[in-house]
Fold these 2 entries.
Entry 1:
Amino acid sequence: MGQTDRARPLHVACIMDGNGRWARRRGLPRTAGHTAGEENLAEIVRIAAKRDVGWLTVFGFSTENWVRPKAEVRHILGLHRRLFGRIEELNEHNVRVQWIGRPFDEPGSRTPVAVQRAIRQAIADTAHNDGMTLTVAFDYGSRAELARAAALARRDGAAVSEGAVASHLYDPSMPDVDLLIRTSGESRISNFLLWQIAGTQVCFTERSWPDLDAAEFDAALALVGDGA
Ligand code: IPE
Ligand code: IPE
Ligand code: MG
């Protein structure tokens, strides 16, 4: 697991935190921080695709984030449409898009149809790329993912083994995470990829997500032995 297993492509996951504080420090509304965060994600995708990163999984919006003020949620939803709309750029960098989160047809799903459409379109329009896989976690919560996986495994009638749970995660083809980066000084996991980070190297950095740059990203990569 993790550091020693270099037979498979490197999997980096990011908890993109600190957009609000980034904006506050500049006297800007929180929404401006989210916009800067989306723009920096595009930059980090470009950087990661150039490095030895096979999988980049980012926490875009959690099942817990729906309680934020309506206007902020609306802004973040718009930014996800923008993110999933960056097809040309993603194709240019040979990046395949995936999504994990509460399935749209499940009770409790709150993902607006326009965002669902953008997600489906991005997946379809980048499916042919064989470089890095960018997985965006949107309306994602790890406990919900695990409870669902266990329920599905049980429905199959087999014993609820590790293998059975793993094969019913939102994306069973996703490898374990090698490196988890959380920005903005919080040392929390916040219900992200609990199963997939069992043996992961974790890097907590003080930088806000909009300020995470190539040097900081490379320093984190060096922790798992993969420099620029
Ligand atoms: C991360 O930044 C973005 C989302 C959770 C959607 P925050 O909005 O949590 O920023 P802080 O933590 O308040 O600074
Ligand atoms: C985690 O950040 C979720 C995302 C980055 C999308 P939060 O800011 O929501 O996490 P907590 O509430 O500080 O744990
Ligand atoms: Mg936060």
Note: The pocket of magnesium ion (ligand 3) is lined by residues 17 (CB under 6 Å).
Entry 2:
Amino acid sequence: MKILGIETSCDETAAAVVENGPSTSSGLRILSDVVASSVELHQKTGGIIPEIAAREQLKCIVHVIEEALQKTKKIDAIAVTVGPGLIGSLLVGVETAKTLAYIWKKPIVPVNHLQAHLYANWLVPENKQQTNPRPELGSKANNKVPKFPAVGLVVSGGHTDLVLMKDHGKIKWLGGTRDDAAGECFDKTARVFGLPYPGGPEIAKLAEKGNSQAYDLPRPMIKQKNLDFSFSGLKTAVINLKRKQKSISKADLAAGIQQAIIDVLVAKTAKAVERYRVKSVLLAGGVAANKELRKQMQAQISSLEPKINLFIPPSKFCTDNATYIAACAFFNFKPIPWQKIEANPGLGIAGASIDKT
Ligand code: KG4
Ligand code: ZN
């Protein structure tokens, strides 16, 4: 089955075609992957202006879909992000997908953007399809698709959620941020330094030359037993530090911020793994592109007994794109009439399939 995925929840306009591999254990093949971003326009304002994001998406959605379908003319179904996200942006993708489903008479599957991030862990990158399916994750153990139950950590620009995935479509929310998301903390603290949006990659670059111990920054909620997070205090600590100290090493502060965020993310993930005795850990979302987080999460999960597999998508598939939207629909194939599909900006990660057990 070939699924066309459409993603427009934030400032990216993306379309991709994904196909199932020769067996369920071989992951999904990416036939096309097109992403257009309006990030340069938002850099001028230091953050996303929703109206501008949606207008840009309207301009390029048809071209992006056309390009994604260039190699693969025939598709079997459409998957579209319905939420969470910016309402204007979501509507562009949702209404386009509904129109195409109606004209082409194809089934359409509504997709939860946050759940979908996790499905980047079932994708096999285009250039790796013929050989080792997941070579860049290194270890032999990772050379397969994730096994359930799994703990998933989704760290994006707007969300930080820990979930227990008992199976496809069986997601239980374990904890999340009480204020800012991890990505938001990167973005907002970067702004304090005058760094461009998005701040995550900029802080990561600066941090390479910095000493993460140079400044004493808080690790909010790290000692608490719950699986929740809080990042706004870290942002405030950085603002106060910048106010109090006349000369600041940007590299050291960047390294300190990055390390404080990583420490909390790694500690809470390890706590969830120990509590729920899972077989896999899945990392996903834009912040999962962070090299230090990938390295330190790998070190922490490898040190746990009994051994479990950590899955981290290649960096390209951590930030927003449509490949994992299609992948999510493949494993949760519940088409509904196009007339019933609606954008839902406030959708939570456990969505309608919330599991309270
Ligand atoms: O998942 P995503 O592309 O969009 C949302 O769904 O929000 O995540 C975007 C977030 C931004 O906050 C960005 O700063 C962060 O991911 N990000 C990073 C890195 N690359 C992107 N954060 C830290 N290190 C990175 N290398
Ligand atoms: Zn996202």
Note: The chain is about 35% helix and 20% strand.
